[in-house]
Amino acid sequence: MNSQELRAVTWTAAAGDGTPAVSLIDQTSLPHTLERLDVTTVDALIDAIVRLVVRGAPAIGAAGGYGVALAMVQGEREGWDRARLDAEIARVRAARPTAVNLMVCVDRVAARVDEGIAAVLAEADAVVREDLEANHAMGAHGADWLLKRAAPDGDRPLRVLTHCNTGALATAGWGTALGVIRELHARGRIEAVYADETRPLLQGARLTAWELVQEGIPHYVQADGAAAGTILRGEVDAAIVGADRIAANGDTANKVGTVAIALACAHAGIPFMVAAPTTTVDLGTASGADIPIELRGEDEVLEWSGVRTAPAASRGHNPAFDVTPGSLVTALVTERGVLEVAAGELPGTRLK
Ligand code: MRU
């Protein structure tokens, strides 16, 4: 299977039992099995978002968009009044707090509820279509910029580091940071990708590595703790990551561990690139200090595969994201082009 064809989130008019469903690639079972989970209720969709069956900011946004349609269909089946429907849509919107795409997409699609289910589904489809287009555009912009900045002398292939999973699985398709990497590979300009395993839930080792295998892109999976050393030893030319929310001053929330990569890149003097669609830019949030950071369950860091690895008396600290100061982001790539954030061109100046 070529991951260009992967669709993490789709709408299915008639799932197994004939009920309309949001159909999700179950990312908890990768890389071992590629299977879909069809959810037919708001509760099941929220559970899927919380358990990371579907994850990655744009993919959660798409799931939220179709979630509005799902709530309408369930409401019709179960006789909900408008207040109940609005409350259920609000629950979908709040399923995870950090990725602003969820709120943006739910609000955009929910604005069409009065026009009926066909209009709602058309809007959710548009969210998906536009995200896919945005990813291809940012892939091209990001690759152009990196080839100029990270390999200015000649046409040697690049060694890039990435964190978490930002590929087709995390989006409507193709990917953001992984989309830039995929574009570089298509141009014959990738020597190797260093994919951080991404503790504690291993989105890098399980999902990014799986996508890289599908694409035939040479890569190494490394422990998160190896990233700074790999960068400081000069073994990579650039780091490329995605984002869950970018504040107006360029501060960027992304998977926990990202800020350490940015610090190492700054020290080494190599580009730290953030690739994200404009739906991830939140001009209503002034700085990273105002971005809500999801704190997940302690067991995710205290256990492995259900087996306790830390002493019984230990407490866990499990922030799912961290914030990289905008001053450490060399370049922000969106579908509209490249902003050189660290050079003083803040998202708010050109993305209004
Ligand atoms: O907890 P996750 O797996 O949803 O976290 C995902 C990330 O941090 C991604 O880097 C981000 O959402 C961008 S996905 C294109």
UniProtKB/TrEMBL annotation:
Site (Transition state stabilizer) residue list: 164
Pfam families: IF-2B
Coiled-coil ranges from the UniProt annotation: none
Keywords, alphabetical: Amino-acid biosynthesis, Isomerase, Methionine biosynthesis
EC class name: isomerase
A Gene Ontology molecular function term of the record: S-methyl-5-thioribose-1-phosphate isomerase activity
Pathway in which this enzyme or protein is active: Amino-acid biosynthesis; L-methionine biosynthesis via salvage pathway; L-methionine from S-methyl-5-thio-alpha-D-ribose 1-phosphate: step 1/6
Record field: catalytic activity: 5-(methylsulfanyl)-alpha-D-ribose 1-phosphate = 5-(methylsulfanyl)-D-ribulose 1-phosphate
Identification of the protein by name: Methylthioribose-1-phosphate isomerase
